[in-house]
Amino acid sequence: MKRFLVNSIVVIGLLIPLAAVALNRLSIGEAIKNNLVNCKLKASGAIPDSLSRRSGYLVSMTIQSLTTEPLEIIFESGRRFMCNDSSSQNLILTEERLVTITHGNQVPYQFMAYCINKRKVSPNYKSYTIGTMAQGLLLKAAQFLGVKKIRSKATPTAIWAITNNSPIEEVKGRTNFETRLVRNYLYGITGRQRPPRSKEPLSYPSVNLSGELRWNMPNNGKVYLYVLDSNNNRLGCLLNNQSYQKGIQYYTFHFLDDALLPSQTYRLLLVKDNLPLKELAVRSKEEL
User: 236-255 burial by CB neighbour count: b if 16+ within 10 A, else e?
Assistant: First the structure.
């Protein structure tokens, strides 16, 4: 197997919000088809430290207008960039960008995109052309990653789960939340069977216990609030030696833990002076 890098391209330059209103706006595919622009792309061989956490890989592009009218070119989420060397990785854009150019101008830009082909070599110093839009699950995945602004190793591994049938469990984001978000989306669109929750809890929606506990403090003092399962195993401590005044008290809780199972009943046990003060049964539920 050839060695590969987790790569991406970052678009820097005249980028403006997509919500901006402008004339002569069209996709890069339409612009090339109608001979309105000329594009040249080449991958660089360096990964800046500022992009390393994004799995960044820079590709430089020059785009030139061939018309007398000013143009706003949309680089769409799901647009592919094809390497002229078939042994190197092709790339895909996840976050849409808008580039403004005027007649005769030839301006450099840098794009962030992500590798499509897991087992191909890195595109160091290779030339690229603008490719067609992705289709099907690959397009859906690219658009999802763009909307959610996933800019980490979760992005290429999610793409490879579609293009190379890589295990979805290989997807790992910057946080457990990001990992869980991307994995659950991929399981949803691919219909693949998930591994057991006990082995891969991040391949399932998170499970929580939420609600409000109300109790009467007989006097000033300190309390503990434990989360217990059906076998009285302690899963967590929500209040740890917390002081409360005499009288009616309220506590809003939201407990997340990978040990929780969905649609199960758990107990909250409030303890004061080593004696049970209040007990509450809570039904668990899934969330993302």
Answer: bebbeeeebeeeebebebeb
Q: Which of 181, 188, 125, 122 is nearest to 152 (CA)?
A: 181
Q: Which residue bears the tokens 């004339």?
A: 23
- Over residues 59-88, the pLDDT tens digits come to 788 888 898 888 999 999 999 999 999 998
Phi/psi for 142 (5° steps) reads -60, -45
209: closest CA among 184, 231, 236?
Answer: 236
* Residues contacting 246, CB < 8 A, separation 6+: 217, 218, 219, 220
> Is it the case that residue 104 has pLDDT exceeding 80?
no
Report domain extents, the chain.
25-202, 206-287
From the options 2.60.40, 3.30.450, 1.10.3470, 1.20.140, give the CATH code of 206-287.
Answer: 2.60.40
DSSP state of 15: B
From the list 246, 248, 241, the residue with the least C-alpha distance to 271 is 241
User: Listing from the earlier edge strand, what are the strands of the sheet with 234-244?
Assistant: 234-244, 221-228, 265-272, 275-283
**Backbone phi, then psi, for 184, in 5-degree steps?**
-65, -35
Q: Which two tokens stand for residue 150?
A: 């996933």
Distance of CA 275 to the CA centre of its chain: 46
Structure tokens, 136: 């099907």
Q: Global pTM?
A: 0.80
